[in-house]
Specification:
Layout: H1 3-50, H2 62-115
Helix pairs in contact: 1-2
């Protein structure tokens, strides 16, 4: 295997890996959003049952308070994952550009070999 060919394969692997990482981040974000909506629904049900919707009220349901905290934590995690997603998208673009360059060089080398 020629060195340029192995470089192309390496870059192709890196592109696939970055795409996989980006996909995982997106799946995690969507799962956290789903969980947060579910918690919000449970909070609304609990508040309706107790008749108290003010979290600072002394008789506010404990479950609703804990669920609200968990939902807030999920929203923080989603924001952090969004930052990671933005960074992963930039890294993917860079690796795709490197792959395109390596593939173009490999193609050029093959064309030169065929002419020779």
């Amino acid at each position: 295997m020629k060195p340029r060919e192995s470089l192309v394969r390496l870059k192709e692997f890196q592109v696939k890996e970055k795409r996989r990482q980006l996909s995982q981040l997106q799946m995690m974000m969507s799962e956290f959003e789903r969980m947060s909506k579910e918690l919000e629904s449970q909070i609304a049900i609990e508040e309706k049952k107790s008749g108290i919707s003010d979290p600072s009220h002394f008789a506010y349901p404990t479950f609703a308070k804990a669920a609200r905290q968990r939902a807030d934590n999920l929203l923080v995690s989603i924001r952090e994952l969004k930052v990671q997603q933005d960074a992963a998208e930039i890294a993917l673009e860079e690796v795709e550009a490197e792959y395109a360059k390596a593939a173009a060089l490999e193609e050029r080398d093959n064309a030169v070999r065929l002419r020779a």
